[in-house]
Amino acid sequence: MVRDAFGGTPAWGDFGAVAMVRLLIGALVVGGRRLRHLAFVQDDPLFRRFCEVQVVPTARTASRWLQGFTLQTVACLQQINTAVIARVLTTLGMRTWTIDVDGVVVSTGLQVERAFRGFNPHHRKVPSYYPIMAHLAETTNVLRVKNRSGNVHDGKAGMPVLRDLWTQLGTVLPRGATVRFRMDGAFFRQDVLNGSEIVLLTDLLEREGFTRK
Predict the structure, then answer these.
(1) SS3 for 109?
(2) Quick one: pLDDT at residue 206?
(3) Alpha-helix runs per DSSP H in the chain
(4) Residue 24 pLDDT more than 90?
(5) 93: helix, coil or strand?
(6) Cα(23)–Cα(59) distance, rounded to whole angstroms?
(7) Which of 38, 48, 86, 205 could be disulfide-bonded to 172 (CB atoms 3.0-4.6 Å)?
(8) CB of 202 within 8 A of CB of 212?
(9) Mean pLDDT confidence for 74-85
(10) Measured between alpha carbons, how far is residue 9 from residues 4, 75, 83, 159 in Å?
């Protein structure tokens, strides 16, 4: 799946996308939360076998690989995530889904572009991003994430994310499923309300046999 998603993109770094994705997943599984934690598993033969590498990349190598991401390769990750979510949902047999959409504070280092201080309510002196995230409440699976600067309003860029989310849900949720959205007051804006009405009305007409024009 990873190889197919990244097939049309130019390679970068000393390790391929499949190995690096396996590396990051494996690090999370064994409890790693920072790239420097890779040093604890660099001599683990089972970890190397899982990642399909002879040498575990260093934290610096993994950091350079992550810095090489572009809008095109980020879209590849979203494609992989959508495919994984679709596989999970088909096995659950549920007919009602609750989508939570909200901003999330992510603390960063001191030299990260577009990170700002003072917007993290728990650590106001720490720079942070403020990405918007959508996930399934029933399973906690993350559907979409869009990064944003740390000094934006919670509802900023909400409508483009919701449009992409509605398109994605049409491909992963079973036909006839009931979908509930939970968003805080920051999304109670005219553009979001109008967009929601248009999408819901268009979907209703298509289900009744009408075509979109």
Answers:
(1) coil
(2) 53
(3) 2-5, 17-29, 45-51, 59-67, 71-89, 158-172, 190-207
(4) yes
(5) coil
(6) 11
(7) 86
(8) yes
(9) 89
(10) 10, 11, 18, 28
Q: 129 near 155, Cβ under 8 Å?
A: no
Asked if 199 and 166 count as a contact pair (C-beta separation under 8 A), the reply is yes
Q: Name the token pair of 44.
A: 């683990």
Average pLDDT taken over every residue of the chain: 82
Residues 6+ apart with CB under 8 A from 176: 95
User: Taking a C-beta distance cutoff of 8 angstroms, is the pair 126, 119 a contact?
Assistant: no
What residues contact 15, with CB distance under 8 A and at least 6 apart? 23, 53, 57, 61, 65
The C-alpha atoms of residue 202 and residue 205 are separated, in whole angstroms, by: 5
Question: Cα separation of 158 and 114, whole Å?
Answer: 18
pLDDT tens digits, one per residue of 152-206: 777 666 778 888 888 888 778 777 778 888 887 777 777 776 766 555 545 544 5
Contact 198, 168 (CB under 8 A): no
Kindly state the tokens that stand for 127: 């720079």
182 phi and psi angles, rounded to 5 deg: -125, 115
Residue pair 82/59 in contact (Cβ under 8 Å)? The answer is no
- Domains delineated in the chain: 2-67 (no CATH), 94-207 (3.30.420)
pLDDT tens sequence across 25-64: 999 999 999 999 999 999 999 999 999 999 999 999 999 9
Six token digits for residue 67: 């810095």
Tokens 């097939």 correspond to what residue?
A: 7
